Amino acid sequence: MTTTRLDAPGLLDRLDQLADLLIDTVDGGASVGFLAPLDRPEAVAWWRGRAAAVAAGQLAVWAAQDGDRVVGTVGLAFPDKPNSRHRAELVKLMVHRDTRGKGLGRTLLTTAEQAAVAAGVTLLHLDTETDSPAEHLYRTAGWTRAGVIPGYAADPAGVLRPTTLYYKQVASG
Asked: What residue numbers bound the domain in which 137 lies?
């Protein structure tokens, strides 16, 4: 398994595989911003829409591949305001259901954290569905729970669920 940072052309080259991963993630019940069932054109369009942000340096995306198949992703979204350039948001940490339980989520998380430090970022933040399996990963990786917002986002079935906010200081300012 290899993990590669995607440039905009690399992201566009992998649109179908990235869409497959997103569809699998939503079908598996993960709250990543989409309702089920997520159709292929919508998944492809969403990923295609990320290419401009990647090209502009506002978004960094890593893809984990098992051979030619994308089985995981993680992203860092960088703010554009002068007073927030020390932080980034961890986004779309996804691992294909048939690849879970093998440490890939931790590998992707570590990859993003190390890249953040290399980019001069000192603070990361994220949100995730409260009581989701992802919470265990973040807690055991040293992330701090900041609080819970009730009814913040709908899960793939359309039911409003609470969201937990986390942060992690990855380097000293």
From this structure: 2-169
How many domains does the chain divide into?
Answer: 1
Spatial distance between the Cα atoms of 53 and 127, rounded to a whole number of angstroms: 20
pLDDT tens for each residue of 103-114: 999 999 999 999
Of 26, 25, 56, which is closest to residue 11 (Cα–Cα)? 56
> What is the Cα–Cα distance from 21 to 108, expressed in whole angstroms?
14
Strands (E), the chain: 2-6, 59-66, 69-77, 87-95, 123-129, 144-154, 160-169
Helix (H, G, I), strand (E, B) or coil at 8: helix
- CATH code for the domain in which residue 138 is found: 3.40.630.30
Rounded Cα distance, 66 and 148, in Å: 35
Assigned token pair, 12:
């566009």
In whole angstroms, what is the distance from residue 23 CA to residue 4 CA?
A: 21
3-state secondary structure of 153: strand
Please count the other Cβ atoms lying within 10 Å of the Cβ belonging to residue 1: 14
Per-residue pLDDT of 114-154, as tens digits, reads: 999 999 999 999 999 999 999 999 999 999 999 999 999 99
**pLDDT score recorded for residue 171:** 84
Looking at residue 35, what DSSP letter applies?
P
